[in-house]
Amino acid sequence: MRYIEIGKVEPGMMLGKGIHDIYNRILLADGKILTEELIERLTELGYAGVYIEDELSKDIRIQEAISLALRNSAVRSLQELNLEKAIEFAEKIVDQILEAKTVSLDLMDMRSFDDYTYRHSVNVAVLSTVIAMGMGYGREDLIDLCVSAVFHDLGKMLIDKDILNKPGKLNCQEMEAMKQHPQFSYDMLSEKWNIPARVRLGALCHHENEDGSGYPKGLTGEKIHPFAKIIHVTDVYDALSSRRPYKEACSFSEALEYLMGGCGTMFDKEVVEAFLNYVPVYPRGSMVELSDGREALVVENYPRNLLRPQLRLTDGTTLDLLNQREYRSLTILRQAGGTLVQAYES
Ligand SMILES: [Fe+2]
């Protein structure tokens, strides 16, 4: 299967990966032939793209970092504000990731506008756990980090919905209100449970920047809790690569470029480096545009050589950018259909 952004999906294409709601109900099953009406509906609902099955990509299987059932259960516990359950799910997320040992982060998360907030929190938790595992964290540390990431935006519940959902730029007053949400997350976590201080600190400091330009306290470098440094990176990455009512999703390579651009000023260098080791620039099953103008499918990524994957041209020819000398001068320009990085607001 391969991933196609929603604007490029055409009637007659076959769905390769079904679409489910948070109750695990199938909205559209694998194998469904997409019609114009279905594509229109998916666009309205806010899906950034879908996986389709075709001749070119029939041998490509996309693995998920955690099971769909666990992801949906965790999302549901947050939506229902069953916070004790959400903590239990955080523990299960860590255990599934630890069991898998090699974690594939190839799956492009499929979500609608409606379930964005909760899916975002779970996605940030999964990404943070994978990155921290790569940085050498043990199970107990991973669980606390994962809980912190699941709840990092809990305080947004107390922010005016009109500000949260405002399409476009926030004015100064609205921005000041928005900047209170990490403190609210911290306060809500402090009041509700007897949970470790580091879980609360991860949420409190997730918008702090290395150079002191972040909020709520303007902390610098070492004063920022290590959990928050990880959550900061995964939060921005996930927000950038999401489609929102007021912006298109930017491509994964553009989101990664943004992280690299902010390395040392916004983001911690070690965290960004760990991130780059685990999150492919061009995930398997995505389409890329080459420097000679051709489009190709990403078939395999090579660890530590993520800019030189194995590709398949639309006529079926294999191009191994790492191992085939004749393609040395060929480079990937961009993920096919990518959009420009837009400013990250909140
Ligand atoms: Fe936040």
Summarize the structure.
By secondary structure, the chain is α+β, with helices and mostly antiparallel strands. The protein is built from 12 helices and 10 strands.
What is the architecture of the largest domain at the second tier of CATH? Orthogonal Bundle
Distinct ligand kinds = fe (ii) ion
CATH class placement of the largest domain = Mainly Alpha
Report the strand count.
10
Outline the low-pLDDT stretches. 338-346
Q: Helical percent range?
A: 25-40%
* Overall pLDDT: 87
CATH superfamily label of the largest domain? Hypothetical protein af1432
**Number of contiguous helices:** 12
Domains (count): 3
**Kindly, what is the distance between the CA atoms of the first and last residues, rounded to a whole number of angstroms?**
34 Å
Whole-angstrom Rg: 20 Å
Secondary structure elements and pairings:
Blueprint: E1 2-5, E2 14-15, E3 19-20, E4 26-28, H1 36-45, E5 49-53, H2 68-79, H3 83-100, H4 116-134, H5 139-150, H6 161-164, H7 172-178, H8 181-192, H9 197-204, H10 226-240, H11 252-261, H12 269-278, E6 287-290, E7 295-300, E8 310-313, E9 318-320, E10 332-335
Antiparallel strand pairs: 1-5, 2-5, 3-4, 6-7, 6-10, 7-8, 8-9
Helix pairs in contact: 2-3, 2-4, 3-4, 3-5, 4-5, 4-10, 4-12, 5-9, 8-9, 9-10, 10-11
The structure holds fe (ii) ion.
